Amino acid sequence: MHIPREVLQIAEDIKTMRIRGAGKIARSAAKALMIAAEKYRGPVAEFKEYMEKVSRIILNTRPTAVSLPNAVMYVMTRLRKAEGDLSDLKQVVISSAKEFIDKSLEAVKKIAEYGAKMINDGDVIITHCHSTAAVSIIIEAHKQGKRVKVYSDETRPKFQGRITSTQLAEAGVDVTLVPDSAMRLMVRKADKVIVGADAIASNGALVNKIGTSQLALAAHEAGVVFLVAAETYKFSPTTFIGELVKIELREPTEIVSKEWLEANPGIRILNPSFDVTPPEYISAIITELGVIPPHAAVLILTESFGWALQEYAMKGIEESEE
Ligand code: RUB
Q: Of the listed 13, 121, 129, 191, which one is catalytic?
């Protein structure tokens, strides 16, 4: 089965982080499915199997951002249920992928609108890594004329904090880049912390870039509001049935050079890319459906993924009967 070059390129770009951030990853996954459908030239009988293969390639790129399987599920559940000739089936994939991308962009706009209302004139804000959703809130507040000062940490080892700082500076926001290790010191000067999400578990725990939980702990200690910007497709339906979110371990060479590694054979390097912040440290989660306390995550899951939860439960029953 021939997989189009453009689809493999998107998979490679997600894997190597040329495409990164949970929202962009999800939209690119939907785009890859759309391109795969458009480019398919084989028999109708093999189309669904081909699309399943493409889905697996996309799903195997990065393990943590739940927006990725949720985007694939959005398109593929519609295709699995669809019937008709090849052009009908292709159309199901193309239109559901487009619908997902539009909804996703719309969700970020809504989050910016709701989040900006929570920012006061003169607020000092801390952010971590680079989150389109979190940055959108800050830029929207700035556009509304609120004077905000932002401390963005570097986010080692990949320095996504530099992307955040550049975007904020270009939008005219007062931004200062600080090392990750300065965050407990800086948080005492802040009114709010705003971060994005790679996944929200059914108990309201946040999975986000490594260092988020340390920042949340410092904010908790200092009594500083800790806000999470998360579109509903970042909520993890499989945590509802007890599955844990897999934490991605990345290459040691993101931390030290290949030469250094070879010169120090006795030293192991561990590079976990994400961590888990308990719901107790989260003041609120800003979604496109509204601002919720972390313990209301289960409401979002039943509202947005109720049908999937039912399917998982049925699958569990069938498997136990086999
Ligand atoms: C990015 C990261 C971001 C979330 C949310 O990690 O942790 O905070 O993905 O981003 P990485 P967004 O750089 O490893 O992908 O709001 O853009 O979806």
A: 129
**Collapsed DSSP state (helix, strand, coil) of residue 322:** coil
The pair of structure tokens assigned to 13 is 């770009």
Contact 309, 248 (CB under 8 A): no
Please name which of 4, 64, 1, 8 lies closest in space to residue 39, comparing C-alpha atoms.
4
pLDDT of res. 310: 72
Q: Which of the four pLDDT bands, split at 50, 70 and 90, describes residue 307?
A: confident
Asked if residues 157 and 273 have their Cβ atoms less than 8 Å apart, the reply is: no
Quick check: bond before 157 cis, omega within 30?
A: yes
165 forms bridges with which residues in the sheet?
none
**Mean pLDDT in the chain?**
96
Contact 51, 33 (CB under 8 A): yes
Q: Please, is 154 exposed, middle or buried when counting C-beta atoms within 10 Å of its C-beta (0-12, 13-18, 19+)? A: buried
Catalytic residue, candidates 102, 191, 198, 275: 198
Does 121 qualify as catalytic in the annotation? Answer: no
CATH number of 5-108: 1.20.120.420
Q: How confident is the model at residue 309 (pLDDT cuts 50, 70, 90)?
A: confident
DSSP 203: T
Q: Which residues make beta-bridge pairs with 235?
A: 200
If one residue of 109, 209, 227, 275 were mutated to test the ligand 1 pocket, choosing by the most ligand atoms within 8 A of its CB, it would be 209
211, two tokens: 């260092």
Task: Report the CATH superfamily, name and number, of domain 110-307.
Answer: Translation initiation factor eif-2b; domain 2 (3.40.50.10470)
Tell me how far the alpha carbon of residue 195 lies from the centroid of ligand 1, in angstroms. 9
